[in-house]
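Protein Record: Sequence and Backbone Structure Tokens
======================================================
Scope: a single protein chain, as residues and as a discrete description of its fold.
Tokens: labelled as protein backbone structure tokens, with as many entries as the chain has residues.
Position: the record begins directly beneath this header, with no further notes in between.
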Amino acid sequence: MANALVSIQIIPKTPNGEDVIPFVDAAIEVIQAAGVDYKVGPLETTMEGDLHELLLVLEKMNQRMLELGCPSNISQVKIYTRADDKASMDDLTAKYD
């Protein structure tokens, strides 16, 4: 089970005004490499797991944007936590599937 869901929309300022999609793809690759459960949505990606671990993933995503030459980056983040360790993407969206 997980104690948190963290959604992020990452909006990098690209080095030369390029399309942001390849940079967003690189940010999602950071999530994939972290091995956490996640779902990509059209405007944000949601991760499920231990809050501390997920916050470290956010840090790595922002660092990746700097490595790719982005002079700045905005990360819009939403966090959902539960004391009983039962934060679940599937539970929150089951009635819509």
Notes: The chain has a mean pLDDT of 96.
